[in-house]
Amino acid sequence: VVQQLTEEQKMKREGYLQKRRRKGGHTQSATKKNQIQILATNITSDQVDMQGLYPIYSLRWQVEILFKTWKSLFHIDKVRAMNPERFSCHLYGTLIHILLSSMIAFQCRYYLYQKHQIEGSEFKCIDHVKSAIEEDQGQALYHSTSFITLIKNIYQNVYRHGRKDHRYQHKSPFDILYLTYEQTFQAV
To answer: Could you tell me if 169 and 144 are in contact, meaning their C-beta atoms sit under 8 angstroms apart?
Structure first.
């Protein structure tokens, strides 16, 4: 998909290119491509129109943020030397910790957005959940009343400290996905 940029988008891109020029990262091909935007996809125009494609394409950064979060908080890129059986246990334990933290953080973020129209930061939310599970040493996972208390504490911490900073008036992933869901369900 090739589309011409609006004047506002051209100005933003030109500002970015000027910063790169000052750092010595200027390329002539970037200057030539300042007028258009090119997206390569296998989605047909029947499924999504050209204007709806860019917000969906921008969601790919959410995957990058998630992997960065896992790498930063759970240190999945650094493992000490150990025997294979111990490594398997360590890997499975870490993956379970990531799964629990991600699921609880997503539910907290979703509830915050639904109830208060506040978007929680992926990184901050997972960090709060990870810390709460580690402080509790997993004991709350075995008792339903302490688990509910743990979830409430996590939610309150995310509400107080986990807000996402919105920059440059970007749409949130929740906004983009809602638009996508709305278009999908209208078509059915």
So the answer is: no
pTM of the model: 0.61
Dihedral (C-alpha) 133, 137, 141, 146: value to the nearest 10 degrees? -90
Beta strands in the chain (DSSP E): 2-4, 36-38
Q: Specify the long-range contacts of residues 132-141, CB closer than 8 Å, at least 24 apart.
A: 132/157, 133/97, 133/100, 133/101, 141/100
Domain boundaries, the chain: 1-38, 60-161
Phi, psi of 36, rounded to the nearest 5 degrees:
-130, 165
Helix (H, G, I), strand (E, B) or coil at 65: helix
- Cβ-Cβ contacts under 8 Å for 141 (sequence gap 6 or more): 100, 133, 147
Name the more confident of 100 and 20.
Answer: 100
> What Cα–Cα distance (Å) separates residue 91 from each residue in 60, 100, 134?
26, 14, 17
